[in-house]
Amino acid sequence: MTPTVRTISPEEHLAHLSSLRSASFLQTPAWGEVKTEWRHESLGWFDGDRLVGSGLVLYRQLPRLKRYLAYLPEGPDLDWTSDRLADQLAPLAEHLRAQGAFGVRMGPPVVTRRWSAAQVKEGLADPAVRRLGDLTPTVREPVGARVVSQLTTLGWRPQGSDEGFAAGQPQYVFQVPLAGRSEADVLAGMNQLWRRNIKKADKAGVEVTTSTGRGDDEGDLKAFHDLYVHTAERDHFTPRGLAYFRTMADALGTEDPDRFRLHLARHEGDLVAATIAVRVGAHAWYSYGASSTEKRDVRGSNAVQWAMLREAIAAGADVYDLRGITPTLDPEDSHAGLIQFKVGTGGEAVEYAGEWDLPLNRALYAAFDLYMKRRA
User: In sequence order, which residues have a C-beta less than 8 Å from that of residue 235 and are 6 or more positions away?
Assistant: First the structure.
């Protein structure tokens, strides 16, 4: 039977997410509250009266027109193992068209390839290797391959970028598998430099505390943001404003008290590193980070990462996700340092299916696509 798609309440949406082992925090009702510049809606897929899928849709309006790009970041949460994805995606397109969408963008939460930390390390050291794709993956995921094949057949268009970070969510991430592993197992899987830096931070007296960033803890969020702005100035990226992080802490933390957590590493009272961790079910993320230029030798960044990993293990998480990397393995590339830092955790580089577009109004979609390309 082809499922039906209709709007559901945030409570129904959360009930479905709670039945899943893993779902992206970008697909929670709370994330719609964070993205204030978008209209949002929770959708449910129903087999009769049974809720079998869910998704958060963000609607971005075109200037002067009541037409929208409908975006499902890292979603929706469906049965992606199905060989009949058309039965699930056709009613989605029909619903979104009725809502005034001229196009749909989604990011199926399915993995296509994985590379071990050892492979990535060897690739970084091999002058003949320039990209992850130059290496034979440790694992090719058949579900991911089937999803890509079906989407192509159904007329969806891949939006991945081969250079740098794409405009949407990252297609390549670095993750540390945690299922069935103890703290000792994870620590042993790290490289020697990471283990040494964790010990060095401990010996130097670095202390890591956690905070909700809300209510009485709002001062901690301001301290994080001050350090984050300092990091942005040093590393030459544009920081988000404090109001964004206040909204994020309030929305995610109100939805679930374990959803949003600040970690603050201090040395002799000085804040040397700070991070935001997010967790949905058994999937934990390192979402944002900041570090001081001073006192780099006390290794606050390693200490705070280890604290987040330990917290994820204690919570029974299956994976600790360090979020985006680029596919470059060229040591001369400006992004190479990021993957070198993350590979020390002993995890794996992971390629997702990426983001895909479906034009619903070809003329409006073509105009929008041209506009986005000119902006880029």
Answer: none
Angle at 85 between CA 84 and CA 91, to 5 degrees: 115
Spatial distance between the Cα atoms of 154 and 159, rounded to a whole number of angstroms = 15
Report whether 320 contacts 176 (CB < 8 A): yes
pTM over 0.90: yes
Q: Answer whether CATH 3.40.50.1170 is correct for domain 112-140+171-352.
A: no
Domain covering 4-107+355-375 assigned CATH 3.40.630.30 in the classification: yes
8 Å CB contact between 353 and 147? yes
What are the phi and psi torsion angles at 182 (to 5°)? -90, 175
Instruction: Show me where the domains of the chain are located.
Output: 4-107+355-375, 112-140+171-352
Please determine, for residue 163, whether its predicted confidence score (pLDDT) is greater than 70: no
Structure token digits, residue 69: 């790009």
- Could you give the CA distance from residue 325 to residue 104 in angstroms, rounded to a whole number? 25
* Residue 235 amino acid letter: D
Query: What SS3 class is residue 8?
Result: coil
The Cα–Cα gap between 234 and 175 comes to: 26
| Cα–Cα separations (whole angstroms), residue 119 to 138, 238, 340, 371 | 8, 32, 12, 39
Structure tokens at 77: 């949460």
Specify the 3-state DSSP secondary structure of 360.
coil
How confident is the model over 221-255, as pLDDT tens digits? 999 999 999 999 999 999 999 999 999 999 999 99
User: Is 38's pLDDT higher than 60?
Assistant: yes
Token representation of residue 261: 């957590």
Q: Which two tokens stand for residue 367?
A: 């105009």
d(CA 199, CA 21): 33
